Amino acid sequence: MTGTTAPRGSGRWIERWDPEDETFWRETGERIARRNLLYSVLSEHIGFSIWSLWSVMVLFMGPAYGIDPAGKFFLIATATCVGALVRVPYTFAVARFGGRNWTVVSALLLLAPTVAALVVMEPGTSYGTFLAVAALTGVGGGNFASSMTNINAFFPLRRKGWALGLNAGGGNIGVPVVQLAALLVIATAGAGHPRLLLAAYLPLIVLAAVLALLRMDNLAPVRSDAGAVRAALRERHTWIMAFLYVGTFGSFIGYSFAFGLVLQTQFGRTPLQAASLTFIGPLLGSLVRPVGGALADRFGGARITLVTFVAMAAATGVVVLASVRESLPVFLAGFVALFALSGAGNGSTYKMIPGIFQAEALARGLDADAAAAEGRRLSGAAMGLIGAVGALGGLAINLVFREAFLGSGSGTAAFVTFLGFYAACCAVTWAVYLRRPVAAPLPGAGEPVKAQLTSV
User: Fold this and answer.
1) Of the candidates 381, 374, 356, 351, which has an alpha carbon nearest to the alpha carbon of residue 433?
2) pTM (predicted TM-score)
3) What are phi and psi of 88, to 5 degrees?
4) Among 416, 345, 307, which Cα is nearest to 172's?
5) Which of 29, 226, 311, 433 lies 20 to 30 Å from 445, alpha-carbon distance?
6) Cα(138)–Cα(144) distance, rounded to whole angstroms?
């Protein structure tokens, strides 16, 4: 089978796409898929930078702004919440408008929160105005869902862990990049010049949109499928994986948004001191995400995910100890480890999703080709739902931090809560995906064979 590009309405449309066909993949598909992956990463990268904008804007907001730490945590939580909610419609926009077309639109939408922040970022602006502008940055969070759904359709199952990990990791790096940019501004111009950071992103947003317009493709076989959405909503694995993704991505984005503010509030760091440390954890977590996906391709997503959650629980124990003893070096070591582990878990959990649905289809008696098609169909619908719930985990982390600091002035109680949650994630991963095998009938055979979902 070969892929051909032909017009359909407007834009570049590929009418036939079969990445599971090894001949097609070798001769045509891989080159096209890699090109789309490159520009998808760029757009998603800038989307993450804009989504996490208020994690650094609060570092610029000194006493003249009149906003206490709890109010700043709520600004961050607002951006997180909106970013989580818009992931659902962004997921389905790919099938409705085409992956390339929606990448252009979603990139241009990033201009709205950036320009709005550029206008209002000064002392004297009302808190309600800041909340509204923080909410606008949520559109950057939606870019992840549409990008992952789009790239999922381009790659064969055997390469999804690597491709989705690279796509997401390259996007996640947008968080430490905007934090590094903020550090540069604070170190050179001072904390009174946040508009320099905002202005720098305007041409980058336009560049991402133009490159997507010129270099990406739409896949015609990716259609709106209301039936797939309903099936994904009914499928228990959608919600189990959403729960696990709260533990991995929810941790990554929640900690990324809150890290600098925790350093300022609990450890008394100045904006410059906080900014000089904030980027380290998100950077490691982003770089490790493709590694988590690649390890999942090789050893099985469930195994890697379980190991990750066990290690995250251990790292959280270190953070609790450091928080109680007020030891900044130990706190930083434990917190940075949490970032790296959450990044690896992000890669392994997303690798699991298409494999789980394909294994379920095999267990129902579908042949290999039909099961692969069903896996792609349901995983594409489920990814947006899972991504949205996972991002809401970041909202929960920021709200838990807010309550902890309101109650005691310390984040210790919050970290104890997170430790309990990671223990629950360990139990669910083991019980559902590692403890018991799944029965899948062999083609043409009456007796089922046992195949564990450790390969997902």
Assistant:
1) 356
2) 0.81
3) -65, -55
4) 345
5) 433
6) 11
Indicate the domain borders of the chain: 5-455
Q: Which CATH number fits domain 5-455: 3.20.20.70, 1.20.1250.20, 1.10.10.10, 3.30.1490.10?
A: 1.20.1250.20
Residues 10-42, buried b or exposed e (16+ Cβ, 10 A)?
A: eebbbeebbbbbeebbeebbbebbeebbebbbb
Q: State whether residue 438 is helix, strand or coil.
A: strand
Contacts of 218 (CB under 8 A, 6+ apart): 8, 11, 12, 13, 14, 98, 99, 100, 101
Distance CA 172, CA 440 (A): 36
- Site of tokens 């450790």: 454
Give the H/E segment covering residue 13.
strand 12-14
Dist CA 101 CA 110 (whole Å) = 15
Report the distance separating Cα 212 and Cα 113, nearest Å: 20
